[in-house]
Specification:
Helix content is 45%, strand content 12%. The protein is of the alpha/beta class. The protein has one domain: Alpha/Beta hydrolase fold, catalytic domain (Rossmann fold, 3-Layer(aba) Sandwich). The model has no long low-confidence stretch (mean pLDDT 95). InterPro entries: AB_hydrolase_1, AB_hydrolase_fold, Carboxylesterase_BioH.
Length: 227
Amino acid sequence: MYVHGLGASSAVYHAHIAADPALAGWRSLFVDLPGHGISDRPAGFGYTLEEHADALAAALDAAGALGAEVVGHSMGGSVAIVLAVRRPDLVSRLVLTEANLDPRPGPSAASSGIATYPEEEFVRGGGWERTLERVGPVWRATMRLADPTALHRSASALVRGTEPTMRRMLLGLDVPRTYLVGGNGDGLAGRAELETAGVVVRTVPGAGHNVMFDDPVAFAAAVAAQP
């Protein structure tokens, strides 16, 4: 199961990966989180990481997919970690790409920028439009399809994080875990601790946050690799 990041869509970011020959014969599920892509936009939904994880669980239950290998990018990786803790029967392996592990990311993070707006100002006071102007064309192509309320609440939830944190949850899981980090970024804080806990950390040289676009061959190989 492929899970996208904040303001994204799973098929756009991962369909070309699932089509790689290295993954031939695998059953692939592309899930858009609530409020994103082609999924519903329930007005009463809180869009917390826990609620997103429960939505993924419902999708896997409906698909009859016990023990899925979950590939999560950015916020989708955070949601995947929460899913693995809440429903361990549904997750047999995690492949996380530049996943958010800690609350309160730096001011350069997109979630932080969105969360600085009060919800009303973001949704109806111009914050949504200013955010679309600020992001690049690739991200804008999918972000414009997200519901503004869902985007703001999801970003705010990502900034708040979870208790325990996503990092502590990841460290405590006993399923195989792979973490992909783009070599062009700022690196991965706490890498040694993750590796000591059994997380396989792989740096993809020349890649940025969107490793699946920057080096799809390396990305597909990491997904196909079996522990």
